[in-house]
Specification:
mainly alpha
Length: 192
């Protein structure tokens, strides 16, 4: 591939930032209002708040991950742009799935779709990481460290599988709890 087919990352990063901002805005707008101005009414919405916190943390974590990576990427190509578009397509389902889970916290299907969205995002990130490593050889050492496949894909995938198994055994909320564990773990790992 000749160097003329490479592009700078600025427009992709701006697009990504805008999409994440929209997703976070929709997340908060989807939160239901308490029926009355009382603690009991607020407590009645605890599953909505729990789902919101997980989804917000996932948005923040994905934005940070993207920022860290693209801070050390000099060039991208059309393949990487389309991988990011696919990532944003799948990730844009988060507000819808958050509401679905909040309204059905003990149902397997909403929880499974929510967890599956996270798994698909991880898979897309894996392929994007491989593409970035291929065309950014000059930053390969940093990118290999930042795109640590074991930390970024294998361990979260294993945690999601555990959540799915527990959910199938009769505790669907386990998927949301595993999503929370994955995102908190990822945030803690990024702070090292």
């Amino acid at each position: 591939m000749d160097t003329k087919s490479f592009m700078e990352t600025g427009r992709l990063e701006a697009f990504y930032d805008a999409i994440i901002a929209i997703i976070v805005t929709v997340l908060v707008l989807e939160l239901p209002q308490p029926a009355t101005a009382s603690l009991a009414s607020i407590w009645a919405l605890k599953t909505s708040y729990f789902a919101y916190v997980i989804s917000f943390l996932v948005c923040a974590n994905l934005w940070q991950y993207h920022h860290i990576i693209y801070n050390h990427v000099d060039k991208i190509n059309t393949k990487i742009i389309w991988q990011n578009i696919l990532l944003m397509f799948v990730f844009s389902l988060i507000p819808y799935l958050t509401t679905f889970v909040a309204n059905n916290p003990n149902s397997f299907i909403p929880q499974a779709l929510y967890g599956l969205d996270f798994i698909i995002v991880d898979i897309i990130l894996y392929f994007m990481a491989q593409s970035l490593l291929t065309i950014n050889k000059e930053n390969e050492d940093y990118l290999k460290s930042a795109l640590n496949i074991k930390e970024a894909l294998y361990i979260p995938f294993a945690i999601f599988i555990v959540g799915f198994i527990i959910a199938i055994l009769g505790y669907p909320i386990a998927i949301s709890i595993c999503c929370l564990i994955v995102v908190v773990r990822s945030i803690c790992y990024s702070l090292k």
